[in-house]
Write a structure and sequence with these properties.
This protein has helices spanning 25-28, 33-36, 41-48, 50-55, 75-84, 123-130, 174-186, 207-216, 233-250, 269-279, and strands at 93-99, 112-117, 151-156, 160-164, 190-198, 221-226, 259-260. It is globular and about 50 Å long. It contains ten helices and seven strands. By secondary structure, it is α/β, with parallel strands linked by helices. Strands 1-3-4-2-5-6-7 form a seven-stranded mixed sheet, with helices on both faces. Bound molecules: guanosine-5'-diphosphate. The site of guanosine-5'-diphosphate (GDP) has 16 residues, from α6.
Length: 288
């Protein structure tokens, strides 16, 4: 895919993207899509469409195993989606409130998306990466043992609400499961659940808690594979193919295309933003 026909504002030329060199969190905060488009095509594809890049490693026969183009927006669409995630005077992106019960959750008219996954899967890092164009937003983390686990609500202008669900583990207390279950089952404006799986270790027993809930409540959900910068390409490809097979054969409600991401290199983050803008009805693309 090339940047043909794409016109972008020149904008501020900020520092070199983190994806090009060593990890630099402060600098990656400024990684705008206009900068990404200045990369050589191969590097840009790897950063924006990591699944396509992985697919290139497969033999022609097995390429169809990965559904890389179920969601296939143009670069122009991806660029437009960026404005949804960019904080401005007119587009306020902010932490709203936290809740331990659904009846304490803010009552908002906007479409909602939620992020769910095991503790340590990289959920806070991903939400921070998605909000990197709104650096004032504070993504709260309550990880201390014994701390009450809460759902955190973020308002993204007039576009949508993003909910950071508490991470779960083996010893998820009963009331925690109840809270998440009730939210998933009853939240009327919930448009999509993003279920995070660590690409280094693949689907773990505890991940089945969330997969089971989404399937049981017939929710539309999407599998996001985190930390793709951590493995060798061979290992990552093996995990991705295994997870894809699982999605194809064992799930009903899961979106067929996987979303591999890295919150360190920003790989896959722009595509995920575009997908979220699209499914919340804020960007009409031909890509879905
Ligand atoms: P959470 O418990 O799901 O919110 O996980 P965190 O976002 O706090 O991440 C857990 C650990 O994984 C932290 O040490 C992060 O720095 C690390 N981490 C998160 N995302 C990535 C990633 O994309 N790449 C790498 N290499 N490490 C990551």
């Amino acid at each position: 895919m090339t940047a043909r026909g794409l016109r972008l504002p020149t904008g501020k030329l900020l520092k070199l993207p983190a994806a090009l060199g060593r990890v630099n969190r402060a600098c990656s905060t400024f990684q705008t899509f206009a900068e990404v488009l200045r990369l050589p095509t191969r590097q840009m594809t790897k950063l924006v469409f990591p699944l396509q890049e992985l697919q290139r490693q497969l033999t022609p026969d097995s390429r169809l195993d990965l559904h890389v183009k179920t969601f296939d927006p143009s670069l122009e669409d991806i660029s437009k989606a960026e404005s949804v995630f960019t904080a401005t005077g007119r587009n306020r992106i902010e932490y709203l409130s936290s809740a331990v019960r659904l009846d304490h959750a803010p009552d908002l008219p906007h479409p909602e998306v939620c992020f769910i996954g095991r503790s340590n899967v990289g959920k806070s890092s991903l939400i921070k990466a998605l909000f990197s164009l709104a650096p004032e937003v504070e993504v709260r983390v309550s990880k201390k043992p014994g701390h009450t686990k809460k759902m955190n609500f973020f308002k993204v202008g007039k576009y949508f609400t993003l909910v950071d669900m508490p991470g779960y583990g083996y010893r998820a207390p009963e009331d925690f499961v109840d809270m998440v279950e009730t939210y998933l089952k009853e939240r009327r404006n919930l448009m999509r659940t993003f279920l995070l799986v660590d690409s280094v270790v693949g689907i773990q027993k505890t991940d089945s808690i969330a997969i089971g809930m989404c399937e049981e409540f017939a929710l539309p959900y999407v599998m996001v594979l985190t930390k793709i910068d951590k493995s060798s390409r061979g290992h990552l490809l093996k995990q991705v193919l295994q997870i894809q097979k699982f999605v194809d054969t064992e799930t009903q409600g899961c979106f067929p295309q996987l979303f591999p991401i890295s919150s360190v290199t920003y790989s896959g983050i722009h595509l995920l933003r575009c997908f979220i803008a699209n499914i919340t009805g804020n960007l009409k693309t031909d890509g879905l």
